[in-house]
């Protein structure tokens, strides 16, 4: 069995790093082209979104973005607009878009309704023991950052979050549903609005 000399090993690792960097640059260029061609119309040039109807993508986890794009393409998550947008995307392009938006950031904004946000803060961190609503933070983290496979909720539009919670509640959103259906079926619309308002100002 032959072993590489230290210098040969260093050269091999260097070549791999260069190749990886070149691939990453190519992926980012492709993602930028895709985003500039269609995504920006709804989600904004910097992932800031143009309306509360559309989610903010800046700072979102790459894996989560790719997962949602795949769900739109398969029909697991329903949206006629998004189905058309993702129809020709490959899994690699979906992940590249996730990394592209993940590098962006949004400034934190104050919640528009501080009193409602304060109620949402309590529910998010503690749940509601009287109705059995679990604390959102147990999955989504104390800062609303989530994990790679879960959405980053902090700085998201309150209107968008409220809509998604209602869709889970009514079984209209059919992906990521096992846990979310069980939780939102116990939530009132006031609790949903409060949690959404709290997260929008995180």
Layout of SSEs?
Elements: H1 6-43, H2 62-74, H3 80-86, H4 91-102, H5 114-126, H6 137-140, H7 158-169, H8 177-184, H9 189-200
How many domains? The number is: 2
Helix content: 55-70%
Strand content: under 5%
The CATH class of the largest domain, by name, is: Mainly Alpha
Give the low-confidence spans.
Answer: none
Mean residue pLDDT: 90
CATH fold-level name of the largest domain: Cytochrome Bc1 Complex, Chain D, domain 2
Q: In whole angstroms, how far apart are the ends?
A: 57 Å
What is the overall silhouette? globular
Can you count the beta strands? 0
Main β-sheet description: none
Kindly name the structural category.
Answer: mainly alpha
Order of secondary-structure elements? HHHHHHHHH
CATH superfamily of the largest domain: Cytochrome c-like domain
Number of helices: 9
What is the level-2 CATH architecture name of the largest domain?
A: Orthogonal Bundle
Kindly provide the radius of gyration, computed on alpha-carbon positions and rounded to a whole number of angstroms: 20 Å
Describe this structure in words.
This protein is an all-alpha fold. The chain folds into 2 domains: 12-102, Orthogonal Bundle (Cytochrome Bc1 Complex, Chain D, domain 2), CATH 1.10.760.10; 114-200, Cytochrome c-like domain (Cytochrome Bc1 Complex, Chain D, domain 2), CATH 1.10.760. 59% of the residues lie in helices and 0% in strands. The protein has 9 helices and no strands. Helix 2 (62-74) crosses helix 3 (80-86), helix 2 (62-74) packs across helix 4 (91-102) and helix 5 (114-126) packs across helix 9. The chain is globular and about 65 Å long. The model has no long low-confidence stretch (mean pLDDT 90).
């Amino acid at each position: 069995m032959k072993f590489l000399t230290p210098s040969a090993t260093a050269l091999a690792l260097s070549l791999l790093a260069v190749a990886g960097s070149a691939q990453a640059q190519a992926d980012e260029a492709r993602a930028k082209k895709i985003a500039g061609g269609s995504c920006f119309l709804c989600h904004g040039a910097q992932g800031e979104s143009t309306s509360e109807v559309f989610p903010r993508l800046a700072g979102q986890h790459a894996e989560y973005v790719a997962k949602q794009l795949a769900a739109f393409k398969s029909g697991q998550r329903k949206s006629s607009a998004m189905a058309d947008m993702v129809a020709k995307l490959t899994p690699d392009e979906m992940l590249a878009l996730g990394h592209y938006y993940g590098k962006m950031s949004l400034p934190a904004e104050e919640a528009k309704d501080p009193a409602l946000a304060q109620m949402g803060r309590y529910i998010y961190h503690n749940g509601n023991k009287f109705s059995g609503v679990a604390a959102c933070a147990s999955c989504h983290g104390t800062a609303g950052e989530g994990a790679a496979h879960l959405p980053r909720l902090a700085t998201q539009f309150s209107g968008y979050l409220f809509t998604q919670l209602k869709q889970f509640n009514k079984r209209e959103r059919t992906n990521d549903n096992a846990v979310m259906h069980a939780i939102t079926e116990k939530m009132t619309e006031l609790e949903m609005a409060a949690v959404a308002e709290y997260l929008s100002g995180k």
